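Q: Structure tokens for this one, please.
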Amino acid sequence: MIFESFIDAQSTFLWSTFAIAVVLGAVVNKTNFCTMGAVSDWVNIGDLGRIRAWMLAMAIAMLGVVIMESMSMVDPGSAFPPYRMGNLIWAENILGGLIFGIGMTLASGCGNKALIRIGGGNIKSIMVLLIIGVIAYFMVNPFPDSDKTLFTVLFYEWIRPLAIDLGSAQDIGTLISEENAVTVRLIVGSLLAMAALVFIFKSADFRGSFDNVLGGAVVGLVVLGGWYLSSNVNINVEDEPYTMSSYYEEWDRVSDSDEGKPAEGRPLSPQSFTFINPMGQTMGYIASKFDRSLVTFGIMALLGVIVGSFLWSLLTRSFRIEWFASGQDFVNHFIGAVLMGFGGVLALGCTIGQGITGVSTLAVGSFLALVSIVFGCAITMKIQYYKLVYEEEASFIKALVAGLADMKLLPNSLRKLDAV
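A: Here is the predicted structure, written as tokens:
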């Protein structure tokens, strides 16, 4: 897609993102596609249906990205955020993932689920969105009249030195063979995706579940669509195609005025769906009194998901206003939102942003973040369940040990509570 002006290119880019996100919001609402729900089904009742749906989304996105990258149709190596960056921030991926997993359990869903619930009338999720947004914004943007961010104040000095320099990139293909990285990514990504698809579709129950198949397929295709769209919007400059980010870098040379110039160039890079950092971007956009130069892929994706969910709720007459059930419910959602704000930025993404979009690039950090999110969510559910069943007898430590024993991470001899 080549346009004669930057404004036309960006407008198409943003509104196409919005349209894709509307589809995502409607389908996720319809099918109840949810990472936390998938983990809950697995941990509490042993049902892998929604886990398979989530894996289907991941497999489709991964297979699509490695094939399209081998054909030079997408450019995940230049992504925003930089999933494949050579600096492996493993401690941030793991800690952020754990914090995020705990937070999304307390807040009854991840960032994407909060947006879906807002579209369905859930007022609790508006609070979750606002809290995540404020924290995510100040994790990467300085406080007023300061050069300090939440990240530099709380994390940078002790966690960033733990990062490992892996050279040019941290994706599996580059680590195996830098000279043949694209080919290796195609082989490894195809094998992983095909193995996942075999596991997914060997289940007759899953094959018979229209919603699970639809949810996983559409989410995977939407993520793939985001990669394709953001990698293929170009501007014609003297018969030479410029990407939006390269046009921004050469703005003074190629443009006659600053009309339509975005505030930053990074959000013009190839990317796909993620929701924690965009919540921060949305807070910045609102605080700026809706400065058009701050509108990004992430903001349009966020709004599109809410609108899509809202339209589906109206169509099916399922729109319901929902408020906090109790004071404890409010506290849980508040704490969960705070943890998701910190964790999502530290981990460089959420269940969609790292678990599907990031993993589709085969970045090592994305796999670390994904495993950590799932573990943080699962162990929190275990603790909650044991405390519910045993009430006062179940201290936090006893419930934690019992949960870890259930997950085969500690020997049963250490548990003080019988398995439930």
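A few notes: The first helix runs from residue 6 to 31. Residues 119 and 185 are 37 Å apart (CA to CA).
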